[in-house]
C-alpha cells in the first residue's frame, strides 16, 4: 500500500515499513536503540518484530504492565529512570511497539526525555493503527481523566504492519472499529456505508479499510495540526465517550470499558444530539444507532450514573472558558465544531440510548 505523508513524517505499510526502518537506521548515527513495549506486545509481537531489524546498535527492551490503568506519570518516571540507568542520550532512538497506550505513553516519554529524542511508533492494534498513528498526540492520563498530560510531537515515522492484528482479541478489534466508523460519519459517507451491515464486510480487504481511515484522519490533521479548528472534528463521539470511559474506569462497581466501546456509545449519544439540533434527519440517526448497536453491546448506564458522568464533561480538552463544546455531525460525512449543548438535551440523549 502507498506510503502516506503525514505532517513531517511518513506512515509506511507492511513490507515497505521495515525497508524504511532499516534505511533510516543505516542513514542516522544513533547511539543505541530502546524498544518500549507493554506486557502484551512483549509476549505476542516483539519476537515477530526483532527479526526485521537490521542494525548493529545495542537494543534494550523496556516493558511495562499492559492496561490503561498504567498510562500515567508513575510509569513514565520508571521508564525515564531505566533510560538513564541504561545510558540513553540525545542520540538514542526509541521505538514504541504496541497499542495506543504504548504509543501515547512512549511518545510522551521520548518527547520529554532530555528535552526530546527521536521516536518511531509501530501500532499493533486496530485502534492504534487507525487513530494513534496520525496526529502527533502523546500523553498520559491524570487519575481517571483521559490524556490530560501530554504534548503534540511527531515521530520520525510510523510503521503499520497489519500482520500484528492476528494477535489482537475480537473485543479489541471491535474497539478499533469504532474510530473507523467515526471517520466515515465525519468525513466520508461512502466509507460509513460500507459498515452498515457488518456481515457483508470482506475482512480480507481490511488493509484497504485501514489505509482509508489513516488517509481521512491525516487529511484533517494536516489542515489543523494543533487542534485549533477542524481537527476538533475527530472528537465526535469523544466528548461523552471519554466521560463515560473515565467514569467506568474510576468506579469499582463498573466494568472497565475499552476505548472503542465507550466511543461507540458516545457516537450514538452525540448523533441523537445532532438530530435534535436538526443537523441530521431522524432516519439518519436511526441508521447510525442501529448500525452501531449491531456491533457493540449497550453500555449499562443507570440514572444515578448520569450526574457523575456530566460532572466529568468539564474536563474535556475541547472546552473553552468553562463551557462544554461538542463536535456534531452535520449530515453524514460532514461536521460542525464548537457546538454548545444544554444539559437537558444531554440527559435526553442518555434516556434515548437506553431505549
Task: Give your account of this protein's structure.
This protein has 355 residues and is α/β, with parallel strands linked by helices. The chain has two domains: 4-168, Rossmann fold (3-Layer(aba) Sandwich), CATH 3.40.50.1970; 171-354, Up-down Bundle (Dehydroquinate synthase-like, alpha domain), CATH 1.20.1090.10. The protein has 14 helices and eleven strands. The protein has helices at residues 14-27, 39-44, 46-49, 73-85, 100-112, 126-132, 170-187, 189-193, 206-223, 238-250, 259-276, 282-293, 306-312, 343-354; strands at residues 4-5, 10-13, 33-38, 59-64, 93-98, 118-123, 140-142, 145-149, 157-160, 325-329, 335-340. The strands form three sheets. The protein has a seven-stranded mixed beta sheet with strand order 1-2-9-6-5-3-4. Helix 7 (170-187) crosses helix 9, helix 10 crosses helix 13 and helix 11 crosses helix 14. The longest helix has 18 residues, at 170-187. It starts with a strand and ends with a helix.
Helix-strand topology string: EEHEHHEHEHEHEEEHHHHHHHEEH
Taken together, the total number of domains comes to 2
Total helical elements: 14
User: End-to-end span in angstroms?
Assistant: 43 Å
Q: Can you name the CATH architecture of the largest domain?
A: Up-down Bundle
**Radius of gyration over all CA atoms, rounded:** 20 Å
Q: What helical percentage do the residues reach? A: 40-55%
What's the total number of strands?
Answer: 11
According to CATH, the fold-level topology of the largest domain is Dehydroquinate synthase-like, alpha domain
Computed structural class: alpha/beta
Biggest sheet character: 7 strands, mixed
Strand sequence of the main sheet, in spatial order? 1-2-9-6-5-3-4
CATH class of the largest domain: Mainly Alpha
Unreliable stretches: none
- CATH homologous superfamily annotation of the largest domain: Dehydroquinate synthase-like - alpha domain
Instruction: Tell the overall outline.
Output: globular
Cofactor: NAD(+); Co(2+)
Organism: Flavobacterium ammonificans
InterPro entries: Dehydroquinate_synthase (IPR050071), DHQ_synth_AroB (IPR016037), DHQ_synth_fam (IPR030963), DHQS/DOIS_N (IPR030960), DHQS_C (IPR056179)
Domain 3-dehydroquinate synthase N-terminal: 62-174
